[in-house]
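# nightly structure sweep
# worker-07 picked up a monomer target from the shared queue
# config: single-sequence mode, recycle default, output format = structure tokens
# input follows
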Amino acid sequence: MSVSLHKAQANGATNAAGPRVEKVFVTPDMAAEWLQKNVKNRRITPSHLSSLVEILQRGEWKLNGDTIRFGKDGLLKDGQHRLSACVAAGVGFWTFVVYGLDGEAFDTIDTNSRPRRVSDVLDIHGMSNTNCLSAAAKLLWVFRKTGQVFEGGSGYGVGFSPNACLEIIGRHKDLEAIVSSVHSGKRIFPSLSVLAAFSYLFSFVSKKASGELLDVMQVGSPDAGRPFNVLREAMIDRRVAGVRMHSRAVAFMLVRAWNSEMSGMWIKRVYYKSSEEFPRIHGLDYSRLEELI
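# output follows
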């Protein structure tokens, strides 16, 4: 049932009768007032809070049935991250609010379900290879902002939402085809999402060379000294040796091989040094990243 903003502010958070549900537009001032009733709750997760702030500021918030929940004691039981994001972003949002929950119900909140991942949303949209596809889209999204790849926990992926993922995929129809291509061949490369994302980035420079990169990764090259082939052999050696590589290292070596191939200055070894700056892609116009990606 929809209610007026005034009624929700005057009676909603303190009414012990219930349980009952109202549809409410939460303003930043209202969110700040309700957060005063956040007496016993889990700690705020900064990365989750930052993601919600970005989603609100980008106008991606949707009324999806999730609720802000209060107990019979008038205290906030669920919704502190959404309310805190509302205050930080200075942007209000529509939501359903539940009042009058029994105290025992608090212990069951967020314990009986798995959070929906971005790949789950792509599944719902009927896409394939959704784990790899969502990871590749996120790599492109971060690259658009930073021009490089970071390891998990860097914070640069904060705010990557299902809507942001769908926007990237919607703008770049070829990305799905590339992901399908890397999935259909031999699993030589340690990160298929990195291979898909960067081969797509390379296609902005040369579609022909980007396609050749994928071919060489699958079947090798008769020219053993070709940088793409040197990269392939380096990845095979690491796979045989059981060396686990994180995304930044894989992307770093991939760009080195591309730069060697495209510059004509062929190298005999492709390596990664964590102390070195992430290499710039030879031929890519970084001033157009926002336009391209």
